[in-house]
Specification:
alpha/beta
Length: 182
């Protein structure tokens, strides 16, 4: 199962919805399933619908308080309602075999940073990949370069997040990480 972090904001450019749908189609084509934040709107909904359209299994995990805001994905094969965000993330982490971050906002960034940090600290060995076709993460990459130059992040830490600009290469990075010994 691939945990995809992405936006539930509907005020974004349609190209992001297209990217999410392309990711979902590619996940299903590889016979993989999806773990998502359980929303049916914006990118979150687009990726889940595309996985299901391709015959893939979807698990949505959503806090009770966000059911209205993110409009719960009642079409998910499994919809898990949690009490809060911490429980949501714990279940998503547990159910996932890999993490893929698409462009998104502060929630996406927070989720990406948490799983990246956990991998760096050897709390899991699951692949962590960011798909960034339009340089939405350019400032984050520059910040990491700065942290490296000042000693706050070492080479090992930086290497625990892999970057991609295409859907296929992002999924190839996940598959290659699964195949390599840790």
């Amino acid at each position: 199962m691939i945990c995809v972090y992405c936006s539930a904001n509907e005020a974004i450019n349609d190209r992001y919805l297209g990217l999410a749908a392309e990711v979902g189609t590619a996940i299903a084509a590889r016979g993989w399933g999806l773990v998502s934040g359980g929303g049916s709107v914006s990118m979150m909904g687009a990726v889940a619908r595309a996985v299901r359209a391709g015959g893939g299994h979807t698990v949505g995990v959503i806090p009770q308080k966000l059911i209205e805001m993110e409009v719960a994905d009642h079409d998910a094969d499994e919809l898990i309602v949690t009490t809060d965000m911490r429980q949501r993330k714990a279940i998503m982490d547990d159910r996932a075999d890999a993490f893929l971050a698409l462009p998104g906002g502060i929630g996406t960034l927070e989720e990406l940073m948490e799983v990246w940090t956990a991998r760096h600290l050897h709390m899991h060995d699951k692949p962590v990949v960011a798909l960034d076709p339009w340089d939405d993460y350019a400032h984050l990459r520059a910040q990491v370069t700065h942290w490296r130059s000042t000693g706050f992040v070492n080479e090992h830490g930086e290497a625990q997040l892999q970057w991609s600009t295409t859907v296929e290469s992002a999924l190839d990075l996940i598959a290659a990480d699964w195949a390599s010994p840790h």
